[in-house]
Amino acid sequence: MNKEEILAKSKLENRGMDMVNLEISKNSMQVGWVVIILLLSAAMVITAITKGIMSYDICFSILAGSAAVFGYKYMKLHKKHELIFTILYGLGALACLAGWIIQLTK
To answer: Relative to the CA of 59, which of 12, 47, 68, 81 has its CA 20 to 30 Å away?
Structure first.
């Protein structure tokens, strides 16, 4: 396959895809994720201060989402630190899930 054939194939595969639009969409998802984490964390802290109870459901959501992000990155990049964070966030999510279930049964 020569240079012209590779270029023609690439143009055909990327037809109708605007790289700027894709990059902006990706960045907007990252910004949205950060806002969600900050708002949920604030809600968790406010609930702990005002009600005196831990919001295990919010904690579980944050940690499970973080585990999913790092797990996806690990599957695509195969970097060891991504796997370590996946495991750590996953364990934290399981601990919060257990706390949430215990809290619901009381």
So the answer is: 81
Q: Could you tell me the pTM of the whole model?
A: 0.73
Report CA-CA distances (Å) from 84 to 61, 70, 77, 89, 98: 19, 9, 13, 9, 21
The Cα–Cα gap between 38 and 30 comes to 12
Q: Which two tokens stand for residue 26?
A: 């990706």
> What are the structural domain ranges in the chain?
17-105
Of 30, 95, 86, the C-alpha closest to 60 is 95
Q: Measuring CA to CA, how many Å separate 40 from each of 23, 33, 34, 44?
A: 26, 11, 10, 6
Nearest to 89 by CA among 99, 77, 79, 81: 81
Give the confidence band of 106 by pLDDT, cuts at 50, 70, 90. confident
Structure confidence by residue, pLDDT tens digits, 41-52: 999 999 999 999
